[in-house]
Write a structure and sequence with these properties.
In the C-terminal section; belongs to the class-I pyridoxal-phosphate-dependent aminotransferase family. The chain is of the alpha/beta class. It contains 16 helices and 17 strands. The strands form five sheets. Strands 6-12-11-10-9-7-8 form a seven-stranded mixed sheet, with helices on both faces. The structure holds pyridoxal-5'-phosphate. Pyridoxal-5'-phosphate binds next to helix 8.
Length: 476
């Protein structure tokens, strides 16, 4: 770790309000121990901070935050009306979701009309008959054994992989799993690889943990493995957070040929691959390639399989598969977080998952989603505007490039005024790029709403392009 990284770490913490005006910074010795670096490296960082007038020195006492520098920090602290202050935590995605609109293309969730609500309510009754004292019990932090048994048998059968029920932890959604893993794997300033673009909540979680995010380009052809190897050599990342199957936001799939090689790289450079596979069963034609986890023999892949999206977001069930070395700290983190996912939701999910209805539901759902994707594409193609996108073969989103230089943020502002929302590309990018890209989810709105919404969006984009005279918005 270099002095500049420590410099950035301190500036970030001052900006987040961890240290205010005239607060004393940790001593050189204690920070060196905390970050596991040489004292000289910390000393150089402090000297640089002093040179840039971010801190000042008190003779024989230490380094203190300059009031001018801390001034910017006030914005990062949230003050409640009764004067309590808290660190400001960012969740850019939920900020957008919170705005109520008629045409909701920002939330990658499935229309509740397509989910098995009636059947699930049936199972609720059955489950309470089978386990009358269900509400009177905690789950174990690792998760219900019966459910772990079932998932273990299912994945062994469908992927021909060696697995036992001790290698599974049930979490409250994949988002909790990302959060727990980042807590057990990342210390401030650790390098973490993330795809560019990526799931925006993961960026916020990893940044909240103090990670240095190193982007890896994800294209329709996959990753550039040579570039990844260079990054692994140079930065020695602790973790690579990835969503290689019907990736959010792009819908891309990492080809099977790259999966095994990536696991080999992870082993060689001792980097944990966190494989988030929330959309695996949402394919339209062909089944996607096997998860990377199935190639891993040495415990370098942790596999997150959420069922929130296509079974029931309300149940919040995700299975985390990992080898023993990772399972123990994960269980400890899970028990600190919430002592276990509620037993009642695990049992309801268990009984639905093992029923025939589950597979029937998936089949119907794939068809319904494919129709919605087709409708969205039809409307986008019909517009006299030069959008660009790659047809997703599964998942819930279209990743769309707006015509030359139209700003997605400006379009979003206009759209919100017309009760329409989408995700602007820059919040999915650790580098804050993709300013002219948007993520449109086709899974929540019905066909009529998709048609109306896309026509509205096209009109707004055309008006914006004309108003600001963006050069080539027309289809060539
Ligand atoms: C890639 C990805 N991972 C995780 C999640 C969150 O999943 P869950 O609802 O299981 O927490 C989402 C939700 O949109 C997602 O797109």
């Amino acid at each position: 770790m270099r002095s500049k990284q420590i410099y950035d770490y301190i500036i970030t913490n001052i900006e987040r309000g961890e240290w205010g005006a005239h607060d004393k910074l940790p001593s050189i010795r204690s920070l060196a121990v905390e970050l596991n670096v040489n004292r000289l490296t910390v000393f150089k960082a402090y000297q640089l901070l002093k040179q840039h007038e971010k801190v000042y020195v008190k003779e024989k006492s230490g380094y203190y935050v300059c009031p001018d520098c801390a001034g910017t920090a006030a914005d990062a602290v949230y003050h409640t009306p009764n004067g309590v202050s808290a660190l400001q935590v960012t969740s850019q995605l939920s900020d957008i979701h919170r705005i109520a609109v008629e045409y909701q293309f920002s939330q990658a969730i499935i229309d509740p009309n397509l989910l098995p609500n009636l059947f699930l309510s049936d199972y609720v009754k059955k489950v309470f008959d089978i386990y009358p004292k269900l509400m009177g019990n905690y789950s174990t932090p690792q998760g219900d054994e019966e459910l772990r048994d079932l998932l273990c048998q299912y994945f062994k059968r469908s992927n021909r992989v060696e697995l036992n029920n001790g290698e599974i932890v049930i979490t409250t959604g994949a988002q909790q799993a990302i959060d727990l893993l980042s807590r057990i794997l990342i210390r401030p300033l650790d390098a973490v690889l993330v795809e560019r673009p990526t799931y925006s909540a993961a960026i916020d979680i990893l940044r909240g943990q103090g990670a240095r995010l190193i982007p890896v380009e994800f294209t329709p052809e996959g990753y550039d493995l040579e570039a990844i190897e260079r990054l692994m050599k140079q930065h020695r990342p602790r973790m690579f957070y990835m969503n290689p199957t019907f990736h959010n936001p792009t819908g891309y799939i990492l080809p099977a040929s790259q999966r095994k090689q990536l696991v080999e790289l992870a082993e060689r450079y001792r980097c944990v691959l966190v494989e988030d596979d929330a959309f695996h069963d949402m394919y339209f034609h062909e089944r996607p390639p096997q998860p990377l986890f199935m190639y891993d023999t040495d415990g370098w892949v942790v596999y997150l399989r959420s069922f929130s999206k296509y079974v029931a977001p309300g149940l919040r069930i995700c299975a985390v598969f990992a080898r023993k070395s990772m399972i123990e700290p994960l269980i400890a983190a899970k028990s600190l977080a919430d002592n276990g996912t509620p037993l009642v939701t695990q049992k309801i999910f268990l009984h639905y998952f093992q029923s025939e209805r589950m597979q029937q539901h998936l089949k119907k759902l794939r068809t319904a989603l494919q129709i919605r994707r087709d409708v969205m594409e039809e409307e986008l193609s019909a517009a006299s505007i030069d959008w660009q996108w790659t047809t997703p073969q599964g998942g819930l989103n279209i990743w769309l490039r707006l015509p030359n230089h139209i700003s997605a943020s400006m379009l979003l502002q206009e759209s919100l005024q017309h009760s329409l929302s989408f995700v602007p590309g820059h919040i999915c990018d650790p580098n804050n790029g993709y300013q002219s890209w948007v993520r449109l989810s086709y899974s929540l709105m019905n066909e009529i709403q998709i048609r109306e919404g896309m026509r509205q969006l096209t009109q707004l984009a055309q008006q914006l392009a004309t108003r600001f005279d963006f050069p080539s918005y027309q289809r060539k």
